Amino acid sequence: METNLAVLIDGDNIPSAHVKEMMEEIAKYGNPTIKRIYGDWTKPHLNKWKNVLLENAIHPIQQYGYTQGKNATDSAMIIDAMDILYSNKVDGFCLVSSDSDFTRLATRLREASMKVIGIGEKKTPDPFIVACDKFIYIEILKNNTKESGGDKTKEKESRKQNVDKITPKVIRLISQTISDVADEDGWAFLGDVGSLLQKKQPNFDSRNYGFQKLTPMINSIDKFEIESRENANSKFKLIYVRNK
Fold first, then answer.
1. C-alpha angle 149-52-102 in degrees, rounded to nearest 5
2. Within the chain, how many helices (H) and strands (E) appear?
3. What is the pLDDT of residues 22-79, one digit of tens each?
4. Which residues is 40 bridged to in the sheet?
5. Which of 53, 145, 205, 232 has minimal Cβ neighbours within 10 Å of its Cβ?
6. pTM for the structure as a whole
């Protein structure tokens, strides 16, 4: 049964570029049956959203800023999220924002057994990231944009700038996670490793480090050993990994 998702976008804290890639990413986790974006659409800086909303069937919600310095968009988005929660029409939420004000909302939705996926820029504060089941950086989606024409060099430079280094801390995290799910011989099914990494660190994603999948990322680190095993139930092999 497909997971129905409510996609709620904070128009004040998310750039309009790469929304198409963002919606394609969300589709991997479920069917976005509700798609709404919040903002004061009388403000000129939100004009760039108009074509994007039409192309991706995202419904704009008008929210006036009644008080100087207060973010009315946050309140409207939170109220809508709770209304949707109690409607029982969705199985999960995708909160698109780089604002830590949605930390409590993410926590509350998870308390109600909702799956919560966060999407935001790398500047997103940690409290909001860890409040989600999974957090995806928009910069990753930018890296997946196809290179074209004279922009080829710029795209490559941008990709290099956005790729994080595999630090000793990251290696220790992977190593400990392998140990946590390993059998008596030290071998761990990579699918289990990936799932536990996600629970430990919601923003863990091999794409942050320039790898499309976890297997080539782990293979690039000489601290680990990888083994492919035949799968009796499928033509695809099972990948196992252990610490050297």
1. 115
2. 10, 9
3. 999 999 999 999 999 998 888 877 778 888 888 889 999 887 765 444 456 688 899 9
4. none
5. 232
6. 0.82
